[in-house]
């Protein structure tokens, strides 16, 4: 009972050209991977600083297991609040320059929990159209009115703020570095508008954490906006190389989330090894500025190379390069063709991105070598020529 329905749904997914399946990685997460039995250069990872297999993180995790065991045993509010959780939270708050921080089990859980904690029925959320699925779901769970504004469109945002009922609580939510387009939100202008219209601001720093100067704290801190943004959230599983997520802000924010946020309250807390690797990662991020520099260098070389081949990369200035294709089937075919030539650049199509904007999402790592990038550019050159890819210019 039920399997007929499942098969019917799967057929619908296939007919829409949106079928997805899992690829298997053997070994660790490096700039090259053994993927489904083939050696490939990895341009599809969020392990931007190359920390996911760093010896310092591995050693910290092993030591934490020896000292504290494997599991945390319960949720934070029962008996699962261990010293390492609080140690990590102090580290995050110090990095971000905020009063307090709170760790979440994942970025997805953070976003789906924070939004309903801050706003509810009768309130208004103003959300960038390209915000991540976890923000979209958080907005839905909040049951507030959702006003979606055009991507980084300040005029539309201001119109939305003006049109909101005067008595409503208003919250603007945006990513700082957009996950699929690699461009930056105009955060200073957004914060100015928020102050003008008495709105709160929540910024998702999932892809910005670890990569912005001066110390990897994210774009909010880099722009000196820490005191003007109510909620900064980010993940520990991307540039920081581990797993989990954080919220940074005031003590009151932390306290309210501990009391009201369902995705914080009703879940087993992260295990000690995960805390320990995040602590080690933050120490490395603060200390090793050269990792960010290496990442930036790699981005500059690959971006310039791809542009000289005629590929369109949108407005990205970051480690996320969206190589725009448009049509979903064409995009997935290009991705497969590149893979056969040893370059893993994931095709991204709806519903992850809007229809007609399918792209290869190419992500750089600090640990890519000049040879990796040179080899990739050779393959992209062939793709542009031999596969007759009619790339946008
Ligand atoms: C912008 C953004 N926010 C949140 C998340 C979710 O974070 P996590 O992977 O820790 O669940 C992601 C990606 O996974 C993301 O890209």
Main features:
single chain, 393 residues, alpha/beta, Aspartate Aminotransferase, domain 1, Aspartate Aminotransferase, domain 2, 2 domains, seven-stranded mixed β-sheet, four-stranded mixed β-sheet, 14 helices, 17% strand, globular, binds pyridoxal-5'-phosphate
Strand residue percentage: 15-25%
Return residue spans where pLDDT drops below 50 for at least 5 consecutive residues: none
- Please count the beta strands (DSSP E, at least 2 residues each): 14
CATH topology term of the largest domain: Aspartate Aminotransferase, domain 2
Task: Give the oligomer, counting copies of the same chain as homo and different chains as hetero.
Answer: single chain
Q: Provide the structure class.
A: alpha/beta
User: Secondary-structure element sequence?
Assistant: HEEEHHEHEHEHEHEHEEHHHHEHEEEH
Give the second-level CATH assignment, the architecture of the largest domain.
Answer: 3-Layer(aba) Sandwich
User: What bound compounds does this protein have?
Assistant: pyridoxal-5'-phosphate
Distance between the termini: 52 Å
Major β-sheet annotation = 7 strands, mixed
Number of domains: 2
| Superfamily (CATH H level) name of the largest domain | Type I PLP-dependent aspartate aminotransferase-like (Major domain)
Helix content: 40-55%
Radius of gyration: 21 Å
Major sheet: arrangement of strands: 4-10-9-8-7-5-6
């Amino acid at each position: 009972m039920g399997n007929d329905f499942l098969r019917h749904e799967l057929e619908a997914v296939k007919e829409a050209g949106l079928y997805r399946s899992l690829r298997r990685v053997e070994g660790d997460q490096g700039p090259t991977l053994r993927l489904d039995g083939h050696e490939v250069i990895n341009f599809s990872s969020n392990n931007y600083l190359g920390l996911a297999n760093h010896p310092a993180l591995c050693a910290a995790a092993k030591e934490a297991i020896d000292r504290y065991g494997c599991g945390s045993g319960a949720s934070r509010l029962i008996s699962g609040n261990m010293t390492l959780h609080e140690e990590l939270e102090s580290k995050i708050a110090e990095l971000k320059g905020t009063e307090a921080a709170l760790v979440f089990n994942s970025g997805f859980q953070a976003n789906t929990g924070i939004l309903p904690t801050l706003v509810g029925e009768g309130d208004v959320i103003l959300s960038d159209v390209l915000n991540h699925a976890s923000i979209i779901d958080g907005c839905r769970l909040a049951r507030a009115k959702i006003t979606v504004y055009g991507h980084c469109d300040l005029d539309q945002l201001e119109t939305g703020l003006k049109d909101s009922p005067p008595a409503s609580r208003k919250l603007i939510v945006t990513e700082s570095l957009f996950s699929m387009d690699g461009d930056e939100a105009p955060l200073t202008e957004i914060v100015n508008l928020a102050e003008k219209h008495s709105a709160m601001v929540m910024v998702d720093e999932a892809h910005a954490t670890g990569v912005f100067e001066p110390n990897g704290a994210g774009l909010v801190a880099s722009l000196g906006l820490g005191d003007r943004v109510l909620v900064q959230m980010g993940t520990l599983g991307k540039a920081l190389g581990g797993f989990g997520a954080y919220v940074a802000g005031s003590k009151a924010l932390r306290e309210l989330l501990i009391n009201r946020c369902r995705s914080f309250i009703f879940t087993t807390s992260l295990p000690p090894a995960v805390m320990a690797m995040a602590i080690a990662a933050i120490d490395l991020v603060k200390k090793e500025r050269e990792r960010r520099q290496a990442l930036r260098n790699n981005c500059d070389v690959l971006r310039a190379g791809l542009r000289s081949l005629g590929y369109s990369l949108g407005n990205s200035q970051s480690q996320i390069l969206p190589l725009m294709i448009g049509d979903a089937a064409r995009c997935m075919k290009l991705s497969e063709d590149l893979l056969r030539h040893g370059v893993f650049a994931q095709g991204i199509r709806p519903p992850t991105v809007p229809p007609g904007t399918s792209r290869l999402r190419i992500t750089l790592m600090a640990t890519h070598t000049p040879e990796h990038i040179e080899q990739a550019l050779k393959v992209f050159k062939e793709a542009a020529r031999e596969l007759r890819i009619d790339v946008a210019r």
